[in-house]
Fold Phytocyanin domain-containing protein.
Amino acid sequence: MALSKQVQIAVVLFSLVAAASALDLPIDWKIPTSGKPYDTTYLQTGDSVTFNWRGFHGVYKITSDRCPATFSDSGPDDLAPSASGGSYTWHATAPGTYYLACQVGDHCKEGMLIEIVVGSGPALAPSAMAPMVPAEAPAASGDSEGSEGEN
Ligand SMILES: [Cu+2]
């Protein structure tokens, strides 16, 4: 909701600026009221996202957008062990598609799941970034060639 909007806006702004500096995107990590996973987030190598939560949550790396039946209690994928309140910063160190979820109870199935697509770096031309922008991204209006008005 407010969060998804925020993320989308951040993504759009990021692509508009075609960005020079590393981004650290804050994520309000909680069970979405929509019951749907978070919007896919697009980053470049060197960027990061910071999960912030107040309830009992954690951050766990999974291998696809399907929530596993169970999460093991430890190991390298248990990025931020579940805790009451916390913050965890995930760094985009290499291009690829990553899935991070909350390992508490059914939170993953309830929507605490985010797909993060990492591109190879800010050197990408805007045209090369285009396929990474969600089709439903709101900012497409008035986007004619050569009129990159927003700086
Ligand atoms: Cu959770």
The chain has one domain: 2-138. Confidence is low (pLDDT under 50) at residues 128-135, 142-150.
